[in-house]
């Protein structure tokens, strides 16, 4: 395999986002009725409790705790598509019968344990290359993926409970890091999935509290760039920033925020890119 550049990220920045999203999820889950824990989420087969069980399972795995043995062959379930899905489902089934309050306490316990371990992690370990969901990468990048995963699940929980984030709740280090993680995949999305032709210059204009511009240039291969060197975009895609994250994560758009997607320039390419925005496994 050709050497890929390793992403080095500031530890304090990433941990600020990770700890903030854990705090937000803990507050969101506090005092839920048992029926709320069973509310269906936008992810097939998973309720609110399953989303939290999945996050508990991933952090437990990172803390060296083995997944519980499932009562059935979870790989046969329709929504389980890979080995990561199998591990997730072991925890989901294991915790499904526990009261919501107990699941919340488990979430608090494992995230407290992980906070201590991450805060104490030396810089060389933070920057060291390890296996991650996005291939061999720095441990720091892996933790940014964790921010993205937890932040997306916070929005899933809000969707399930009918408690969408306010504009103020959307602004913060976790959402910025999640957008950074999504932005890093847009070369792949535009080039490989959206099949934008050579010479394309694709501008995503995100509006609302998660506003930012993301530019992808197709020059030999598609890659994210800071600017188009004075040239105009050939494709523009304008939509609410939170809705962009939902589409990129393979979720339905949320109620309560604008759902309109404006396509400009080469509309066929723009439509194909939007149709293939989902990059998650």
Please give a structural write-up.
Residues 176-272 form the MDMPI C-terminal domain. Pfam families: MDMPI_C (PF07398), MDMPI_N (PF11716). GO terms for molecular function: metal ion binding. This is Maleylpyruvate isomerase family mycothiol-dependent enzyme. The chain is of the alpha+beta class and 281 residues long. The chain folds into 2 domains: 11-161, dinb family like domain (Four Helix Bundle (Hemerythrin (Met), subunit A)); 194-276, Nonspecific Lipid-transfer Protein, Chain A (2-Layer Sandwich), CATH 3.30.1050. 49% of the residues lie in helices and 14% in strands. The protein contains 12 helices and 7 strands. It has helices at residues 11-29, 34-37, 48-62, 83-95, 100-119, 123-127, 139-161, 167-170, 173-183, 186-193, 241-248, 267-275; strands spanning 129-132, 135-138, 201-207, 212-219, 221-225, 235-240, 262-265. The strands form 2 sheets. The chain has a 5-stranded mixed sheet with strand order 5-4-3-6-7. Helix 3 (48-62) packs across helix 4.
């Amino acid at each position: 395999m050709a050497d890929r550049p390793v992403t080095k990220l500031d530890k304090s920045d990433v941990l600020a986002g990770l700890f903030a999203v854990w705090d937000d999820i803990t507050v969101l889950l506090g005092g839920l009725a048992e029926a709320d824990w069973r509310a269906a989420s936008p992810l097939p087969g998973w309720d609110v409790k399953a989303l939290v069980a999945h996050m508990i399972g991933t952090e437990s795995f990172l803390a060296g705790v083995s997944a519980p043995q499932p009562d059935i062959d979870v790989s046969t379930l329709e929504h389980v598509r890979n080995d990561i899905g199998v591990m997730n489902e072991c925890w989901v089934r294991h915790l499904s019968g526990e009261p919501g309050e107990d699941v919340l306490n488990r979430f608090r316990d494992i995230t407290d344990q992980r906070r201590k371990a991450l805060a104490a992690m030396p810089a060389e370990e933070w920057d060291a290359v390890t296996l991650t969901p996005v291939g061999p990468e720095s441990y720091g990048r892996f933790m940014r993926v964790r921010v993205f995963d937890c932040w997306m699940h916070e929005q899933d929980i809000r969707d399930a409970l009918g408690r969408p984030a306010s504009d103020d709740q959307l602004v913060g280090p976790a959402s910025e890091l999640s957008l950074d993680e999504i932005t890093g995949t847009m070369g792949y999305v535009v080039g490989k999935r959206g099949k934008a032709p050579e010479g394309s210059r694709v501008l995503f204009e995100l509006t609302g509290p998660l506003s930012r511009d993301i530019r992808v240039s197709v020059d030999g291969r598609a890659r994210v760039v800071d600017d188009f060197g004075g040239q105009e975009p050939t494709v523009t895609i304008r939509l609410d920033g939170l809705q962009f994250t939902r589409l990129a994560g393979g979720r339905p758009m949320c109620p309560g925020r604008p759902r309109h997607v404006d396509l400009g320039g080469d509309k066929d390419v723009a439509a194909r890119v939007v149709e293939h925005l989902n990059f998650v496994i």
